[in-house]
Design goal:
The protein is an alpha/beta fold. It has 10 helices and 8 strands.
Length: 273
């Protein structure tokens, strides 16, 4: 099967211009990225584009998207998404989010359930589960993060993260070009505006999950050590018409480790009608 082309366009919003990657054909599905800001070259997008018109916006503060200084929490994020959807001419559609993006998708679905026809939450953040805290993402080294993000430490991105640690250790950071670490700094700064305090959750979100009306698929990577399993289990239990599926041999960044399998699972779920 021919690989779908993913184009990058710029959409003007009330907060400023944002990058949107789009490709494929058919029913639209919106992909909301994680705190890693995965965008350019994300292998999940062409895999999804085999089945759908895939639309992947970069949130303000990530990539080339502007306007993060006007975001002060998840409520602002939801209103930005509503504005973006309208400017893209999107009606009710499927929405998928990974981690931070899953949290955004859940917040959108609780406030405006009529906007979402199918909801897919992959290793989502957003909840506080006693005794199952999400690990720190702000004060750890790339190597420490790689252990949580990838089941396979030989994955090219994991290997790069370990190499960055080696350069920092051996060269005191001086040997790392700023342009190499700029995206990580940028992403963490933007994430902090959404999830610094309280840390990566909304204390009221769990009590609102009953408002979600879209059939929901919660994807849990069995080797994800960043977001503990009870978070996925809570989403699946509290959202009406939700189903929990497990993906073995993959960690938090399932969109990089098993993009084709994940896309097939999503396509099968949406095709159920």
């Amino acid at each position: 099967m021919t690989t779908a082309t993913i184009d990058t366009l710029t959409v003007d919003t009330r907060l400023g211009p944002v990058q949107v990657r789009r490709g494929g054909s058919g029913a639209p599905i919106v992909y909301l990225h994680s705190a890693a800001g995965e965008g350019e070259g994300l292998p999940l997008l062409p895999e999804l584009a085999r089945h759908f018109d895939v639309i992947a916006p970069m949130f303000p503060g990530f990539g080339g998207s502007e306007g993060i200084e006007q975001i002060d929490g998840m409520e602002d994020a939801v209103f930005h998404l509503l504005d973006l959807f309208e400017r893209l001419g999107l009606g009710p559609c499927s929405v998928m989010g990974l981690s931070l993006g899953g949290w955004m998708a859940a917040e959108l679905a609780t406030r405006y359930p009529e906007k979402i026809t199918k909801l897919i939450l992959a290793n989502p953040a957003g909840l506080y589960v006693p005794g199952a805290n999400i690990k720190d993402i702000f004060g750890r080294t790339p190597s420490q993060m790689a252990g949580d993000l990838f089941a396979d430490q030989n994955h090219p991105v994991a290997a790069l993260m370990h190499q960055m640690d080696k350069l920092i250790t051996e060269g005191g950071g001086a040997s790392i070009p700023f342009e190499m670490i700029k995206p990580q700094i940028q992403s963490m700064t933007a994430t902090a505006r959404l999830g610094w305090n309280p840390y990566l959750h909304n204390p009221k979100l769990q009590s609102r999950l009953w408002r979600i009306t879209a059939p929901t698929l919660v994807v849990r990577s069995d080797k994800d050590t960043l977001v503990p399993a009870p978070h996925c289990e809570t989403y699946a239990r509290e959202i009406p018409n939700a189903r929990l599926v497990h993906m073995p041999d993959t960690a938090h960044m399932v969109v990089l480790e098993q993009p084709a399998k994940l896309a097939d699972i999503v396509a099968e779920f949406i095709a159920e009608g």
